[in-house]
Design brief:
The chain is an alpha+beta fold and 127 residues long. The protein has helices spanning 31-43, 61-65, 118-124, and strands spanning 16-17, 20-21, 72-77, 80-85, 88-92.
Amino acid sequence: MTSPTNPDYNANNAHHQADGFVNRYADRSDKPGLWRWQFERLLDGLPKPPEVPVLGVAPNLELIKSNNPEPRLTWVGHATLLVQVDGINLLTDSHWGNRVSPFSFIGPSVIKSRGFHMINYQKLMRY
């Protein structure tokens, strides 16, 4: 038997293959399945609003704007992080829309506002 080319191969995991990985839900990625899922989601009223409010903490903009050599990581919202290392500001996966969607007219609305607004971020940028 030849050894697997996938260094993470584990025969106990259904999505592992000797030469890579497999999407176990490939049938959900076809377009009819996607539209059916969206329709069922809307009929079921999903996503449900949170049962308790999502609390946030006001950002410490003075600390964020300071030129401190110590590395910092600030959660902005959803999957957006502000990484500050050695005087460089890196914004990951920034999403500034009001809907979690590539389109402004469909998709779930943002539940919690961003940690700080784009206008504040522009002040952080160094060219």
